[in-house]
Write a structure and sequence with these properties.
Number of helices: 10
Strand order of the largest sheet: 3-4-5-6-7-8-9-10
Mean pLDDT: 96
CATH topology: TIM Barrel
Number of domains: 1
Oligomer: single chain
CATH architecture: Alpha-Beta Barrel
Radius of gyration: 18 Å
Strand content: 15-25%
Helix content: 25-40%
Order of helices and strands: EEEHEHEHEHEHEHEHHEHH
Amino acid sequence: MMKNLQDTTTLHNGVKMPWFGLGVFKVEEGPELENAVKSAIKNGYRSVDTAAIYGNEVGVGKGIQAGLKEVGIAREDLFVTSKVWNSDLGYDATIAAYEQSLEKLGLEYLDLYLIHWPVEGKYKDAWRALETLYKEGRVKAIGVSNFHIHHLEELMKDAEIKPMIDQVEYHPRLSQKELQAFCQEHGIQLEAWSPLMQGQLLDNEVLQDIASKHNKSVAQIILRWDLQNGVVTIPKSTKEHRIIENANIFDFELTNEEMEVIHGLNQNLRVGPDPDNFDF
């Protein structure tokens, strides 16, 4: 079981990825973003997740450089993820999008590059591009985001390389047990976005009761639940005290009974679009 913030899972290609990281969805360019990334690195985070569509790769890059300099660690000690947007899902367009993300981030490579959404008729060409980038050693790992089981099955029919990651909406109201079982069977690591359901679970009485027993916050209980389920998680915050608090989950363990009680909150509810029905 994970014992600290730097603990990693080993992806099916042997690359080590931190179990816990910082997400920056909807955080705009500027000092707040740069300080959040720097502060996360300063406080022990070694994973940062962004995407082209977030429009903040420049600020993330600046925060990374500032954080590396302040802590005195090398680029290789950090795991950086970005994602190709729907409008760039073609072989050449995806290669170009990757180059653009690298330029904005100010990096020579990414640790993980993902297809953001499974746009029908386009994601296979994009995957071929990711395979090329991977085989050329320009990205350490490749994967997908928001893929259902049938999307993964369709992709793997023609793929030379299996996705290493499927990053999906995942929280106690959407526990995705079937998808996780499929991913485990095929060696694909599940990763959670919106693990706190955009704050909608913080007033849940069941979670509050468990939190009080462990003298933790509801957010900490949910994030611990993620990790004990073997799911990589990347909560978003721009406030240093919250960044620290979110990561303070390695000094306790939920019981099997508590894990099941939290699983029982599942209602297959989403705060984001269904990957079978999205329009952007």
